[in-house]
Amino acid sequence: MQVAKKIIQDQLSLLYSEQEIESISKLIFEKVLGLSRLQVHLNQLTTIPEANLAQIKEILRRLIRFEPIQYILGETEFYGLTIKVNSSVLIPRPETEELVDWIITDYRQLTPDILDIGTGSGCIPITLVKNLPGASAEGWDISTDALIVAKENAKINKVNIGFHYADVLSQTFPSHLHKYDIIVSNPPYVTDSEQSLMLNNVTDYEPHIALFVPDKDPLLFYRSIADIALIQLKQGGNLYFEINEKLGRETADLLVSKGFRNVILKKDINGKERMIKAESPL
Fold first, then answer.
1. Residues 239, 220, 207, 269: is their CA dihedral positive or negative?
2. Amino acid 35: pLDDT
3. What whole-number distance in Å separates Cα of residue 244 and Cα of residue 51?
């Protein structure tokens, strides 16, 4: 065990912080050896088989190229659930967990019908259905590869969710449209000019189609999805978005201009405006 820990430290010390290395080490030992942090601590003198050491070295080789550990291991944790991920889908972020938690808090005693637009890995509708007994959900995405991942995640987490192809910008939707209590979306919102400020592990590996929007029209997805919500939300239904922290007021103004009521901007745990909620017009 000590040999493996030293290899990890030596390989990553110049590229990652101590906190990152500790977190990565925990994930590696869980995945490769099936050991918790406590078990690793209690087995310091255990010799790791050569085959497992080879696995660890391969993981480190990819980490040195800044490939995200979640893609290397093929999964991540989201709101206590295991979610499979690959380069076809975004890696779920903590702020998306906060968005999901907001919805769960609002609907804890209810059984809403939910639509997630731009579902990616399916983490949002899967988590909502797991935590809101009686709720139903579906997810849309333009990426057929993402839909494959989402369907696998629904199966892994034992929920029944329909995932369907849709292109909201070209108004290509599934044929079975009905009214929803909740429409939620974490659409592309990073402007092209912000791309240079992002880390290589994001820009080199995560799907650009799910990340970036043109500087000249950064709210194009919000506008299209809001138009869908005007038609497909039930009266009194709510639209929830994850948003660009720099465009909170602009996003709120867009929703107000379309007639949405009770628009609420919400800050994340770091004090940044990253979520918005709006009630359907009367």
1. negative
2. 79
3. 44
- List Cβ neighbours of 5 (8 Å cut-off, separation of 6 or more): 25
CB-CB contact of 242 with 250 (8 Å): no
pLDDT of res. 38:
77
Tell me which of 26-40, 63-77, 160-174 is least confident.
26-40
Q: How far apart are CA 209 and CA 255, in angstroms?
A: 24
pLDDT attached to residue 46: 80
Q: CB-based contacts of 175: which residues, under 8 Å, 6+ apart?
A: none
pLDDT digits (tens, 9 = 90+) for 242-260: 999 999 999 999 999 999 9
DSSP state of 1: -
Instruction: Give the CATH class of 76-279.
Output: alpha beta
Asked whether the whole model's pTM tops 0.90, one would answer yes
N-terminal to C-terminal alpha carbon distance within the chain:
63
Angle subtended by helix axes 144-156 and 123-131, to nearest 10: 30
